[in-house]
């Protein structure tokens, strides 16, 4: 009896089908993990920017910076020569808004088009949906009645 070494065509097709099914299951989970990583990165960088704004405020006679770019040229050097970029955009910086003694610094978030503003009372309002991620010294949305 002649015995052949190797796989038959049917066996190869079955192996390829199983691999395709496993990839189909794993790919959406991988994308979800990428999204979670970007959210964690944005939250960490926003906390760093918040600390930099607070430091600027203390060292500049209780004045908030006009924009985030002012942090790169502040004395003492607060943030270095380049601002971090929002992980949800292609090379754009985080957004910021100030009014009076309140500020909000935000990432566009998972939807890619979120933003936030702060009013003179310190209340933060999200615009273009609620997907933005932000830090503020005002009243965050979670504290709203």
Give an overview in words.
The chain is an alpha+beta fold and 145 residues long. The chain has a single domain (40-143), classed as Glycoprotein, Type 4 Pilin (2-Layer Sandwich). The protein has 1 helix and 5 strands, in the order αβββββ. The strands form 2 sheets. It has a 3-stranded antiparallel β-sheet, with helices on one face. β1 (95-99) and β2 (102-107) form a beta hairpin. The chain is elongated.
**Tally of separate helices:** 1
Order of helices and strands: HEEEEE
The name of the CATH topology is: Glycoprotein, Type 4 Pilin
Percent of residues in helices: 25-40%
Radius of gyration: 24 Å
Low-pLDDT sequence parts:
none
Tell me the quaternary state: single chain
Number of strands: 5
Name given to the CATH architecture: 2-Layer Sandwich
Please report the first level of CATH classification, the CATH class: Alpha Beta
Shape: elongated
Task: Give the end-to-end Cα distance, rounded to a whole number of Å.
Answer: 83 Å
Strand content: 15-25%
**Can you give the mean pLDDT?**
87
The structure class reads alpha+beta
CATH superfamily: Glycoprotein, Type 4 Pilin
Strand order of the largest sheet: 1-2-5
Tell me about the biggest sheet? 3 strands, antiparallel
Number of domains: 1
């Amino acid at each position: 009896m002649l015995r052949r070494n190797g796989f038959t065509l049917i066996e190869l097709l079955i192996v390829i089908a199983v691999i395709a099914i496993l990839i189909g299951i794993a790919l959406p989970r991988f994308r979800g993990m990428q999204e979670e990583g970007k959210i964690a990165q944005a939250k960490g960088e926003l906390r760093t920017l918040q600390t930099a704004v607070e430091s600027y405020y203390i060292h500049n006679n209780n004045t908030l910076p006009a924009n985030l770019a002012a942090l790169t040229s502040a004395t003492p050097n607060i943030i270095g020569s380049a601002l971090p970029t929002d992980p949800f955009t292609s090379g754009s910086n985080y957004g910021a808004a100030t009014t009076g003694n309140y500020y909000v610094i935000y990432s566009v978030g998972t939807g890619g088009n979120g933003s936030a503003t702060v009013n003179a009372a310190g209340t933060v309002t999200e615009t273009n949906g609620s997907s933005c991620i932000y830090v503020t010294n005002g009243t965050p949305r979670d504290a709203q009645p």
